Protein backbone atom coordinates (compact mmCIF):
# COMPACT_ATOMS: atom_id res chain seq x y z
CA UNK A 1 0.00 0.00 0.00
CA UNK A 2 1.34 3.43 -0.96
CA UNK A 3 2.56 5.63 1.87
CA UNK A 4 0.84 8.97 2.54
CA UNK A 5 3.64 11.47 2.15
CA UNK A 6 4.33 14.11 4.75
CA UNK A 7 4.22 17.55 3.13
CA UNK A 8 5.80 20.39 5.13
CA UNK A 9 5.02 23.93 4.03
CA UNK A 10 7.23 26.60 5.62
CA UNK A 11 5.91 30.13 5.27
CA UNK A 12 6.15 33.66 6.66
CA UNK A 13 2.34 34.04 6.49
CA UNK A 14 1.10 34.05 10.11
CA UNK A 15 -1.76 32.27 11.82
CA UNK A 16 -3.39 32.36 15.26
CA UNK A 17 -5.50 29.99 17.32
CA UNK A 18 -8.88 31.01 18.72
CA UNK A 19 -10.28 30.05 22.12
CA UNK A 20 -11.39 26.67 20.73
CA UNK A 21 -7.95 25.89 19.34
CA UNK A 22 -9.04 26.30 15.72
CA UNK A 23 -6.69 28.11 13.33
CA UNK A 24 -7.45 31.63 12.05
CA UNK A 25 -5.64 32.93 8.97
CA UNK A 26 -6.08 34.90 5.75
CA UNK A 27 -8.97 33.49 3.71
CA UNK A 28 -7.13 33.48 0.36
CA UNK A 29 -4.21 31.66 1.93
CA UNK A 30 -6.60 29.18 3.53
CA UNK A 31 -8.06 28.41 0.12
CA UNK A 32 -4.61 27.66 -1.30
CA UNK A 33 -3.79 25.38 1.61
CA UNK A 34 -7.05 23.52 1.09
CA UNK A 35 -6.05 22.87 -2.52
CA UNK A 36 -2.76 21.32 -1.41
CA UNK A 37 -4.49 19.21 1.23
CA UNK A 38 -7.04 17.92 -1.28
CA UNK A 39 -4.17 16.51 -3.34
CA UNK A 40 -3.74 13.66 -0.87
CA UNK A 41 -0.76 14.92 1.13
CA UNK A 42 -0.50 14.83 4.89
CA UNK A 43 0.04 18.60 5.11
CA UNK A 44 1.73 20.38 7.98
CA UNK A 45 2.22 24.17 7.93
CA UNK A 46 5.08 25.72 9.86
CA UNK A 47 4.53 29.46 10.26
CA UNK A 48 4.64 32.42 12.69
CA UNK A 49 2.00 31.93 15.38
CA UNK A 50 0.45 35.15 16.70
CA UNK A 51 -0.87 35.47 20.23
CA UNK A 52 -4.49 36.18 19.27
CA UNK A 53 -6.74 36.12 16.24
CA UNK A 54 -7.21 39.90 16.55
CA UNK A 55 -3.59 40.28 15.46
CA UNK A 56 -4.25 38.68 12.05
CA UNK A 57 -3.92 41.12 9.14
CA UNK A 58 -5.30 39.84 5.85
CA UNK A 59 -4.61 40.66 2.21
CA UNK A 60 -8.30 40.78 1.46
CA UNK A 61 -11.25 41.85 3.57
CA UNK A 62 -11.65 38.64 5.55
CA UNK A 63 -10.04 35.83 7.53
CA UNK A 64 -10.93 32.13 7.62
CA UNK A 65 -11.08 29.56 10.40
CA UNK A 66 -9.78 26.02 9.92
CA UNK A 67 -10.73 23.26 12.33
CA UNK A 68 -8.00 21.99 14.62
CA UNK A 69 -9.16 18.51 13.57
CA UNK A 70 -9.05 19.27 9.84
CA UNK A 71 -6.81 17.95 7.08
CA UNK A 72 -4.06 20.49 7.78
CA UNK A 73 -1.88 20.56 10.89
CA UNK A 74 -0.12 23.73 12.06
CA UNK A 75 3.18 24.15 13.87
CA UNK A 76 3.99 27.63 15.16
CA UNK A 77 7.20 29.47 15.85
CA UNK A 78 7.77 32.93 17.41
CA UNK A 79 6.79 35.79 15.08
CA UNK A 80 9.41 38.42 14.30
CA UNK A 81 8.90 41.97 13.11
CA UNK A 82 12.43 43.36 12.78
CA UNK A 83 15.91 42.16 11.96
CA UNK A 84 16.95 42.88 15.53
CA UNK A 85 14.69 40.06 16.71
CA UNK A 86 17.78 37.87 16.24
CA UNK A 87 17.36 36.34 19.69
CA UNK A 88 14.28 34.45 18.42
CA UNK A 89 16.13 32.67 15.63
CA UNK A 90 17.60 29.80 17.69
CA UNK A 91 14.06 28.83 18.73
CA UNK A 92 12.76 29.22 15.16
CA UNK A 93 15.56 27.09 13.74
CA UNK A 94 14.97 24.45 16.37
CA UNK A 95 11.32 24.22 15.29
CA UNK A 96 12.28 24.13 11.60
CA UNK A 97 14.89 21.42 12.17
CA UNK A 98 12.37 19.20 13.94
CA UNK A 99 9.72 19.71 11.26
CA UNK A 100 12.11 19.17 8.34
CA UNK A 101 13.40 15.95 9.90
CA UNK A 102 9.87 14.52 10.05
CA UNK A 103 8.88 15.57 6.49
CA UNK A 104 9.19 13.77 3.17
CA UNK A 105 8.84 16.95 1.12
CA UNK A 106 9.64 20.53 2.14
CA UNK A 107 7.84 23.40 0.40
CA UNK A 108 9.15 26.97 0.71
CA UNK A 109 8.80 30.16 -1.32
CA UNK A 110 10.50 33.47 -2.03
CA UNK A 111 10.68 35.19 1.34
CA UNK A 112 10.67 38.81 2.44
CA UNK A 113 12.44 40.52 5.34
CA UNK A 114 12.52 39.85 8.20
CA UNK A 115 11.72 36.21 7.36
CA UNK A 116 14.40 35.49 4.73
CA UNK A 117 16.09 33.27 7.34
CA UNK A 118 13.29 30.72 6.89
CA UNK A 119 15.23 29.62 3.82
CA UNK A 120 17.15 27.58 6.40
CA UNK A 121 14.38 24.99 6.08
CA UNK A 122 15.00 24.60 2.35
CA UNK A 123 18.78 24.41 2.76
CA UNK A 124 18.47 21.87 5.56
CA UNK A 125 16.11 19.71 3.52
CA UNK A 126 18.52 19.79 0.56
CA UNK A 127 21.46 18.83 2.80
CA UNK A 128 19.47 15.86 4.10
CA UNK A 129 18.60 14.70 0.58
CA UNK A 130 14.87 15.38 0.95
CA UNK A 131 12.59 16.36 -1.90
CA UNK A 132 11.88 20.09 -2.09
CA UNK A 133 9.35 22.34 -3.79
CA UNK A 134 10.14 26.02 -4.19
CA UNK A 135 7.60 28.62 -5.28
CA UNK A 136 8.26 32.08 -6.69
CA UNK A 137 4.82 33.51 -6.20
CA UNK A 138 5.05 37.02 -7.65
CA UNK A 139 7.39 39.39 -9.40
CA UNK A 140 8.69 40.70 -6.10
CA UNK A 141 11.61 42.46 -7.85
CA UNK A 142 9.33 44.81 -9.75
CA UNK A 143 6.88 45.16 -6.86
CA UNK A 144 9.59 46.16 -4.39
CA UNK A 145 11.35 48.41 -6.86
CA UNK A 146 8.05 50.21 -7.41
CA UNK A 147 6.90 50.48 -3.79
CA UNK A 148 10.20 50.42 -1.87
CA UNK A 149 13.26 51.33 -3.92
CA UNK A 150 11.98 54.33 -5.88
CA UNK A 151 10.66 55.98 -2.69
CA UNK A 152 14.08 55.96 -1.04
CA UNK A 153 14.63 59.69 -1.45
CA UNK A 154 18.40 60.14 -1.61
CA UNK A 155 20.47 58.30 -4.18
CA UNK A 156 22.37 56.62 -1.38
CA UNK A 157 19.16 55.27 0.18
CA UNK A 158 17.83 54.19 -3.21
CA UNK A 159 21.07 52.28 -3.84
CA UNK A 160 20.84 50.66 -0.39
CA UNK A 161 17.28 49.55 -1.01
CA UNK A 162 18.14 48.24 -4.48
CA UNK A 163 20.90 46.18 -2.92
CA UNK A 164 18.35 44.73 -0.53
CA UNK A 165 16.06 43.70 -3.41
CA UNK A 166 19.00 42.26 -5.35
CA UNK A 167 19.94 40.16 -2.31
CA UNK A 168 16.40 38.76 -2.12
CA UNK A 169 16.61 37.87 -5.81
CA UNK A 170 19.91 36.06 -5.30
CA UNK A 171 18.43 34.09 -2.38
CA UNK A 172 15.50 33.07 -4.60
CA UNK A 173 17.91 31.95 -7.32
CA UNK A 174 19.88 29.80 -4.86
CA UNK A 175 16.74 28.07 -3.66
CA UNK A 176 15.49 27.55 -7.23
CA UNK A 177 18.84 26.07 -8.28
CA UNK A 178 18.70 23.37 -5.59
CA UNK A 179 14.95 22.66 -5.40
CA UNK A 180 13.65 19.38 -6.76
CA UNK A 181 10.82 21.30 -8.41
CA UNK A 182 10.20 25.05 -8.77
CA UNK A 183 6.81 26.56 -9.55
CA UNK A 184 7.00 29.98 -11.21
CA UNK A 185 3.65 31.65 -10.59
CA UNK A 186 3.99 34.72 -12.80
CA UNK A 187 5.19 35.39 -16.35
CA UNK A 188 7.81 37.77 -14.98
CA UNK A 189 9.08 35.09 -12.58
CA UNK A 190 9.47 32.75 -15.54
CA UNK A 191 11.51 35.36 -17.42
CA UNK A 192 13.70 36.22 -14.42
CA UNK A 193 14.33 32.82 -12.85
CA UNK A 194 13.75 29.96 -15.27
CA UNK A 195 17.46 29.58 -16.08
CA UNK A 196 18.22 29.31 -12.36
CA UNK A 197 15.90 26.33 -11.79
CA UNK A 198 16.77 22.65 -11.90
CA UNK A 199 13.19 21.80 -12.82
CA UNK A 200 11.00 24.85 -13.37
CA UNK A 201 7.34 24.91 -14.37
CA UNK A 202 5.21 27.97 -15.09
CA UNK A 203 1.90 27.85 -13.29
CA UNK A 204 -0.88 30.46 -13.41
CA UNK A 205 -3.40 29.38 -10.86
CA UNK A 206 -6.92 30.86 -10.98
CA UNK A 207 -9.04 31.27 -7.89
CA UNK A 208 -12.38 30.09 -9.29
CA UNK A 209 -14.14 26.78 -9.81
CA UNK A 210 -16.66 25.85 -12.49
CA UNK A 211 -19.57 26.78 -10.20
CA UNK A 212 -18.18 30.32 -9.92
CA UNK A 213 -18.40 30.93 -13.67
CA UNK A 214 -21.30 33.13 -14.73
CA UNK A 215 -24.32 30.91 -15.59
CA UNK A 216 -25.18 30.57 -19.28
CA UNK A 217 -28.58 32.23 -18.93
CA UNK A 218 -27.16 35.20 -17.04
CA UNK A 219 -24.35 35.50 -19.55
CA UNK A 220 -26.76 35.48 -22.49
CA UNK A 221 -28.71 38.30 -20.85
CA UNK A 222 -25.51 40.31 -20.48
CA UNK A 223 -24.68 39.81 -24.14
CA UNK A 224 -28.16 40.96 -25.17
CA UNK A 225 -27.71 44.11 -23.09
CA UNK A 226 -24.33 44.79 -24.73
CA UNK A 227 -25.87 44.34 -28.17
CA UNK A 228 -28.72 46.73 -27.33
CA UNK A 229 -26.25 49.59 -26.95
CA UNK A 230 -26.45 50.24 -23.20
CA UNK A 231 -23.67 52.37 -21.69
CA UNK A 232 -20.84 50.00 -20.87
CA UNK A 233 -20.18 49.15 -17.24
CA UNK A 234 -16.52 48.95 -16.21
CA UNK A 235 -15.55 47.12 -13.04
CA UNK A 236 -12.28 47.16 -11.11
CA UNK A 237 -11.69 45.22 -7.88
CA UNK A 238 -8.39 45.67 -6.09
CA UNK A 239 -6.58 47.49 -3.34
CA UNK A 240 -6.55 51.23 -3.98
CA UNK A 241 -2.81 51.73 -4.27
CA UNK A 242 -0.83 53.91 -6.67
CA UNK A 243 0.71 50.98 -8.54
CA UNK A 244 -2.79 49.74 -9.49
CA UNK A 245 -3.18 52.60 -11.98
CA UNK A 246 -6.73 53.48 -10.97
CA UNK A 247 -5.94 57.19 -11.26
CA UNK A 248 -5.10 56.60 -14.92
CA UNK A 249 -8.39 54.78 -15.40
CA UNK A 250 -10.27 57.76 -13.97
CA UNK A 251 -8.40 60.11 -16.28
CA UNK A 252 -9.35 57.92 -19.24
CA UNK A 253 -13.00 58.21 -18.23
CA UNK A 254 -12.65 62.00 -18.35
CA UNK A 255 -11.32 61.68 -21.91
CA UNK A 256 -14.28 59.50 -22.87
CA UNK A 257 -16.69 62.03 -21.37
CA UNK A 258 -15.22 64.73 -23.62
CA UNK A 259 -15.63 62.36 -26.57
CA UNK A 260 -19.27 61.78 -25.69
CA UNK A 261 -18.81 58.09 -24.83
CA UNK A 262 -21.10 57.11 -21.92
CA UNK A 263 -19.57 54.65 -19.45
CA UNK A 264 -20.07 53.82 -15.79
CA UNK A 265 -17.20 52.66 -13.55
CA UNK A 266 -17.34 50.84 -10.22
CA UNK A 267 -14.05 50.78 -8.31
CA UNK A 268 -14.50 48.06 -5.69
CA UNK A 269 -11.99 47.91 -2.88
CA UNK A 270 -10.27 50.31 -0.51
CA UNK A 271 -6.79 51.43 0.43
CA UNK A 272 -4.37 54.25 0.94
CA UNK A 273 -5.27 56.00 -2.33
CA UNK A 274 -9.04 55.87 -1.83
CA UNK A 275 -9.50 59.52 -0.77
CA UNK A 276 -7.19 60.80 -3.52
CA UNK A 277 -9.07 58.82 -6.16
CA UNK A 278 -12.41 60.25 -5.07
CA UNK A 279 -10.94 63.76 -5.13
CA UNK A 280 -9.55 63.18 -8.61
CA UNK A 281 -12.92 61.99 -9.92
CA UNK A 282 -14.60 65.10 -8.49
CA UNK A 283 -11.93 67.43 -9.86
CA UNK A 284 -12.29 65.91 -13.35
CA UNK A 285 -16.09 66.09 -13.03
CA UNK A 286 -16.61 62.37 -13.54
CA UNK A 287 -17.71 61.54 -9.99
CA UNK A 288 -21.17 60.84 -11.44
CA UNK A 289 -19.59 58.13 -13.62
CA UNK A 290 -16.98 56.73 -11.21
CA UNK A 291 -18.44 55.05 -8.12
CA UNK A 292 -16.75 53.60 -5.03
CA UNK A 293 -18.96 50.78 -3.67
CA UNK A 294 -16.38 49.58 -1.11
CA UNK A 295 -14.70 46.20 -0.60
CA UNK A 296 -16.10 42.80 -1.46
CA UNK A 297 -15.59 39.53 0.41
CA UNK A 298 -13.59 37.00 -1.66
CA UNK A 299 -15.49 34.38 -3.62
CA UNK A 300 -19.05 34.58 -4.87
CA UNK A 301 -19.54 38.32 -4.27
CA UNK A 302 -16.49 39.17 -6.36
CA UNK A 303 -17.53 36.96 -9.28
CA UNK A 304 -21.07 38.34 -9.26
CA UNK A 305 -19.89 41.95 -9.18
CA UNK A 306 -17.48 41.36 -12.04
CA UNK A 307 -20.05 39.36 -13.98
CA UNK A 308 -22.49 42.29 -13.74
CA UNK A 309 -19.99 44.48 -15.60
CA UNK A 310 -19.13 44.50 -19.30
CA UNK A 311 -15.36 45.21 -19.02
CA UNK A 312 -12.95 44.41 -16.20
CA UNK A 313 -10.23 47.04 -15.84
CA UNK A 314 -6.85 46.16 -14.34
CA UNK A 315 -4.46 48.95 -15.34
CA UNK A 316 -1.67 47.60 -13.12
CA UNK A 317 1.59 49.52 -13.63
CA UNK A 318 4.01 46.74 -12.67
CA UNK A 319 4.78 43.31 -14.08
CA UNK A 320 3.15 41.53 -11.15
CA UNK A 321 0.42 39.02 -11.97
CA UNK A 322 -2.89 38.90 -10.15
CA UNK A 323 -5.61 36.28 -10.12
CA UNK A 324 -7.96 39.13 -10.95
CA UNK A 325 -7.34 38.41 -14.64
CA UNK A 326 -8.94 35.02 -14.20
CA UNK A 327 -11.61 36.32 -11.80
CA UNK A 328 -12.74 38.57 -14.65
CA UNK A 329 -12.95 35.70 -17.11
CA UNK A 330 -15.08 33.72 -14.65
CA UNK A 331 -17.55 36.59 -14.90
CA UNK A 332 -17.57 36.35 -18.68
CA UNK A 333 -15.97 39.79 -18.68
CA UNK A 334 -13.04 40.74 -20.95
CA UNK A 335 -9.94 42.16 -19.28
CA UNK A 336 -8.66 45.64 -20.04
CA UNK A 337 -5.03 46.01 -18.92
CA UNK A 338 -1.80 47.76 -19.73
CA UNK A 339 0.62 45.86 -21.95
CA UNK A 340 3.21 44.37 -19.56
CA UNK A 341 4.97 40.98 -19.39
CA UNK A 342 2.24 39.81 -17.01
CA UNK A 343 -0.71 40.79 -19.19
CA UNK A 344 0.85 39.88 -22.54
CA UNK A 345 1.35 36.30 -21.36
CA UNK A 346 -2.15 36.09 -19.84
CA UNK A 347 -4.68 38.20 -21.73
CA UNK A 348 -5.10 37.36 -25.39
CA UNK A 349 -5.34 40.82 -26.97
CA UNK A 350 -8.50 41.11 -29.02
CA UNK A 351 -9.58 37.58 -28.05
CA UNK A 352 -10.54 37.63 -24.36
CA UNK A 353 -9.45 41.16 -23.53
CA UNK A 354 -7.75 44.31 -24.74
CA UNK A 355 -4.28 45.65 -23.97
CA UNK A 356 -3.39 49.35 -23.89
CA UNK A 357 0.02 51.01 -24.00
CA UNK A 358 1.61 51.16 -20.55
CA UNK A 359 0.72 54.27 -18.50
CA UNK A 360 -1.05 55.77 -21.54
CA UNK A 361 -4.47 57.19 -20.59
CA UNK A 362 -5.42 57.92 -24.19
CA UNK A 363 -4.64 54.35 -25.20
CA UNK A 364 -6.74 53.15 -22.26
CA UNK A 365 -9.63 55.40 -23.31
CA UNK A 366 -9.37 54.26 -26.93
CA UNK A 367 -9.53 50.59 -25.93
CA UNK A 368 -12.74 51.24 -24.01
CA UNK A 369 -14.12 53.24 -26.91
CA UNK A 370 -13.31 50.43 -29.32
CA UNK A 371 -15.47 48.07 -27.24
CA UNK A 372 -18.17 50.76 -27.10
CA UNK A 373 -18.18 51.12 -30.90
CA UNK A 374 -17.82 47.41 -31.76
CA UNK A 375 -20.33 45.56 -29.61
CA UNK A 376 -19.88 42.31 -31.52
CA UNK A 377 -16.16 42.34 -30.71
CA UNK A 378 -17.03 42.83 -27.04
CA UNK A 379 -19.48 39.91 -27.14
CA UNK A 380 -16.91 37.65 -28.83
CA UNK A 381 -14.27 38.57 -26.21
CA UNK A 382 -16.82 37.97 -23.45
CA UNK A 383 -17.61 34.50 -24.80
CA UNK A 384 -13.92 33.63 -25.17
CA UNK A 385 -13.28 34.77 -21.59
CA UNK A 386 -16.09 32.60 -20.24
CA UNK A 387 -14.97 29.57 -22.29
CA UNK A 388 -11.47 29.94 -20.95
CA UNK A 389 -12.73 30.19 -17.37
CA UNK A 390 -14.67 26.95 -17.74
CA UNK A 391 -11.52 25.11 -18.84
CA UNK A 392 -9.08 26.85 -16.48
CA UNK A 393 -10.23 26.22 -12.90
CA UNK A 394 -8.50 26.14 -9.53
CA UNK A 395 -9.08 22.41 -9.08
CA UNK A 396 -7.58 21.68 -12.50
CA UNK A 397 -4.42 23.52 -11.55
CA UNK A 398 -4.29 21.75 -8.18
CA UNK A 399 -4.61 18.44 -10.03
CA UNK A 400 -1.73 19.31 -12.35
CA UNK A 401 0.42 20.60 -9.52
CA UNK A 402 -0.18 17.46 -7.47
CA UNK A 403 0.58 15.28 -10.50
CA UNK A 404 3.90 17.04 -11.12
CA UNK A 405 4.84 16.87 -7.44
CA UNK A 406 3.96 13.17 -7.12
CA UNK A 407 6.39 12.39 -9.92
CA UNK A 408 9.12 13.15 -7.40
CA UNK A 409 8.00 10.13 -5.35
CA UNK A 410 7.65 6.95 -7.39
CA UNK A 411 5.41 4.60 -5.46
CA UNK A 412 4.17 7.26 -3.06
CA UNK A 413 0.93 9.21 -2.87
How does this model look, in words?
By secondary structure, the chain is an alpha/beta fold. The protein folds into two domains: 6-206 and 394-406, Rossmann fold (3-Layer(aba) Sandwich); 210-391, Rossmann fold (3-Layer(aba) Sandwich). It is built from 15 helices and 16 strands. It has helices at 27-37, 89-102, 119-127, 140-149, 155-178, 187-193, 216-228, 246-259, 274-283, 300-307, 324-330, 341-344, 361-373, 375-391, 394-406; strands spanning 6-10, 16-17, 23-26, 42-48, 63-66, 72-77, 105-109, 131-136, 181-184, 200-202, 232-237, 263-268, 290-294, 311-314, 335-338, 353-356. The strands form three sheets. It has a seven-stranded parallel β-sheet with strand order 6-4-1-7-8-9-10. Strands 13-12-11-14-15-16 form a six-stranded parallel β-sheet, sandwiched between helices. Strands 2-3-5 form a three-stranded antiparallel β-sheet. The mean pLDDT is 91.
Topology, pairings included?
Elements: E1 6-10, E2 16-17, E3 23-26, H1 27-37, E4 42-48, E5 63-66, E6 72-77, H2 89-102, E7 105-109, H3 119-127, E8 131-136, H4 140-149, H5 155-178, E9 181-184, H6 187-193, E10 200-202, H7 216-228, E11 232-237, H8 246-259, E12 263-268, H9 274-283, E13 290-294, H10 300-307, E14 311-314, H11 324-330, E15 335-338, H12 341-344, E16 353-356, H13 361-373, H14 375-391, H15 394-406
Parallel strand pairs: 1-4, 1-7, 4-6, 7-8, 8-9, 9-10, 11-12, 11-14, 12-13, 14-15, 15-16
Antiparallel strand pairs: 2-3, 3-5
